[in-house]
Request: fold
Amino acid sequence: MGMVFCRGCGKEIHETAPTCPHCGAPQGQPVRSGPPRSDKDYAVTLLLCFFVGFLGIHRFYAGKIGTGLLQMFTFGGLGIWAFVDLIFVALGRFTDSEGREITFR
Reply:
């Protein structure tokens, strides 16, 4: 384990220190792994898509109102669109309205 320089005051500190003992400056942000995940529940999305996917209810749940209405009026693209969505949901690649993946936690 080595020494590094503080981001705030420039003094030498231990590399694992979360804050500088001299000035109190935080030394780093925790590393996030992967893209941000949605707060929507994976199981709910999967079940909605499986049972009423042709009506686009899972898209309403995910906050995608426009495509939910389109899917409702076309009966899920005659089932094809709903089937593709089911695959995406099952693989954890389906996103909510903010682009965050709805994944199994």
In short: Residues 1-31 form one domain. Residues 68 and 83 are 14 Å apart (CA to CA). The longest helix spans residues 80-91. The chain has a mean pLDDT of 90.
